Each structure stands twice: as structure tokens, then as C-alpha cells.
Amino acid sequence: MIINGLSLLSAPLYLFEKFFVGKITEHLLGERISAEHLNSDRLGRVLDKLYGAGLTQVFVTLALAAGSKFGVKKDSLHLDSSSFHLHGEYPVTVSDASGEATAIKITYGYSRQHRPDLKQFLVYLR
To answer: Same domain for 64 and 88?
Structure first.
């Protein structure tokens, strides 16, 4: 899927097998792997297994293994944030069904969208 997605001509998943016809799949993916092996049924089963294992856990495990293999230093941590601006009236803190305050805090602040008039909340990923 990554190879398909990074190509200039992205194909729908039901045509996944046809995407690999004429490509050197054995070189890319391993010996004895041909385009016929990369069909939509197999892709669906793999996606189900990835989801069951937890996509975040799979990604972190693969990223750490790749970093270790290529000697990437792990002496720093990357923090990514996204802000979402809101239209309308919202309380400063959001409550769940029981009335308990949740972790989301809606407030005014620096707006990357240049809309200081709108409230926003932030999401951080590490």
C-alpha cells in the first residue's frame, strides 16, 4: 500500500494486484512473492490484523526497529501538535455524560489560521 500510495498513479484497493503487475515484487518484497499474492483479499486480512494489533503500537515498534538498524540517536522526543478552531459558543472545559470535566480545554490562544477571534483546542502526539 505504501509503494502504491507513493507512486504517481495511485490505484484503488480492488486493483491492488494489478498495480504490481510488471514490477519487481521479489526484489521489493521478498523471494517468491508475485503480483498474484498481493490481492485485495490478502490486503484486507493484513489490514484487519494491523488494526487488531493496534496501529500505533505497530508503528512505534517498526519505527524503533528501523531507527536501531540505521543507528538513529534516540536522545530526543518529537512532539507534534494540531489545533482545531471552533465556531459557536463552547464552555472552557468540556464535560462527559457524568458531568466530569474531560482533558479537553477550549480557550482562546495563538491561532495558526490567523483567527484569534475563535476558540480552539489542541491535540498533541508524541
So the answer is: no
